[in-house]
């Protein structure tokens, strides 16, 4: 619990897209956490989420002010005249969390003497708030970038992974805009941040010169021919940094969510700058990256059909622990630290029902095959400006004849579910300290896992949202690797299925869905789908 410095503005500087922030006072705690968890013998440790450690950055001003002014003693006297209500433990949402602890005998024992208080959410203000204000959406991007920053050794693989993650979050944002009938193909900025525009413009000019002259001058003064050998990779490293030491900007003189890594994806302008940067990145790769990708198109294989279960989204209530906003005076009794109550912020968040899809594959031979599944708009023809968000990817063996493959949404890799709250974690630890409970090690969620419930955009309430699914099959080259980026540890590289670029085939520009070899033929399948939003 904190007091005294609550709510001070985080004044660090970051690069235009937030690939790190200058670490402020409170971020030292999270930095230390990230560094400790890179030790293999500490992997089992479970830490609160950043939005529980520093809730001020993730909640509206009214909620933060009410929580900061909350007085437990006065609330007991005047319980019926405040915005805070006490709830039964079984009313905590969601009840289904990792480890299935909520509702168990041990859980009731741990929470027996804890008053659970709730304060309700303010009303939504705009069509995109359910995504941009989502605390898991924001904390995911924070954790990814903190993990990257704290990786001592840079690498081409990590750079590629960073730009792939940026393309994913941009595609997901554009799908949400498309679903809300907002402009999405060409994003615009709302408030001009001159220091960011300058950085982006300088980078675009350098990329343009590199493409025009097929060469680049390095920081050491030498000039290299980008068409020789693998010099294009050297140019990629020179032009496209992914950490703050190479793209730092001046310190802002007033609060700006674009300069705070915890809130940067809340700003719609972030996606405008991300789009400009990714355009330059893809254009550079389009020109210089060797195109041997047709060798990965499988032969003697055909995707005959795809069937998908109903896609349904809904608004789910959730309680978020904001106890760390409260004054420390509530948690000391006769000089001893106690945790007698918790304050939960009731919010409404986007969720979807579990779904599955079935593939029907014909083959004339046994072959190991990778399938990538993308979600995009219903637009046809020119797809250069359409978002393609990768829902799933998997490796399997295809046998001669007819093959049926079923995939469940819960199986999709790289995703994370819900976890127990900061308060619950504390009381479970106290229970274990008294040797009344064997502390479970299956209740943590990977900090760099994307929120599973956000993979689908909000569906249509009356008329369903019409989208398309794209399935792409490629030949497996037996070079898959599994690393630990889900836990924000990039020290040994990143996971990948093969040597194809991450984001294939959309790491470069493809113009037409009926002409590009990568997405047209027997090895691909386009499927129209609807997403319906239910009001519960």
TrEMBL record:
Keywords: Storage protein. This is GM14969. Gene3D superfamilies: Di-copper center containing domain from catechol oxidase, Hemocyanin, C-terminal domain. It comes from the Eukaryota. The keyword 4Fe-4S does not apply. GO terms for cellular component: extracellular space. Residues 50-183 form the Hemocyanin middle domain. GO terms for molecular function: nutrient reservoir activity. InterPro entries: Di-copper_centre_dom_sf (IPR008922), Hemocyanin/hexamerin (IPR013788), Hemocyanin/hexamerin_mid_dom (IPR000896), Hemocyanin_C (IPR005203), Hemocyanin_C_sf (IPR037020), Ig_E-set (IPR014756). PANTHER family: FAT-BODY PROTEIN 1-RELATED, LARVAL STORAGE PROTEIN/PHENOLOXIDASE. The gene is Dsec\GM14969. Residues 292-533 form the Hemocyanin C-terminal domain. One of its GO terms (biological process) is energy homeostasis.
